[in-house]
Amino acid sequence: MAEETDSGVGSMPDSSKDCTPEKKRRLSSSFDEDDEDDETFSERLWGLTEMFPEKVRDASFSAFCGTKHGLKSLYSFARTSMWIIFSSSAILLAPVMFEVERAQVEEAQRSEQRQALLGPHTAIAGGPPPIR
């Protein structure tokens, strides 16, 4: 195996590699980041609004508020209309469903009565044969 040799450039305290402007800038920026207070995401966004003109900020705020109001109104309308539709359908369709169920029960009772009186085959056939 070949033995790796160290050039010694990295181990020298005042080497030209340590004095490059990029390294100094990196070292100083890392210390500066620790000294600064961390700002929240909302604070950063609020700070970014200062770079736009007043008209743009006002227009975007108006668009946001209009959209918010529109969505609230749409939600309220949808909620109210769904309540009206479902409650009306329950009130209007419940009697119809009860009548259909009552008619089916009456038909089943008639069928049982025919079967008891005339025998099991007449209930299946639908009653006595028609008279000619």
From TrEMBL:
The record, for InterPro entries, names:
Tom22
Keyword set, alphabetical order: Membrane, Mitochondrion, Mitochondrion outer membrane, Protein transport, Receptor, Translocation, Transmembrane, Transmembrane helix, Transport
- Compartment(s) of residence: Mitochondrion outer membrane
| CDD domains according to UniProt | TOM22
A Pfam match: Tom22
Q: One biological-process term from Gene Ontology? A: intracellular protein transport
Segments for region (Disordered): 1-38
Q: Report the main location listed first in the record.
A: mitochondrion
In Swiss-Prot or TrEMBL terms, this protein is called Mitochondrial import receptor subunit TOM22 homolog
How does this protein lie in the membrane?
Answer: Single-pass membrane protein
Q: Which family does it belong to?
A: Belongs to the Tom22 family.
Record's GO cellular component terms: mitochondrial outer membrane
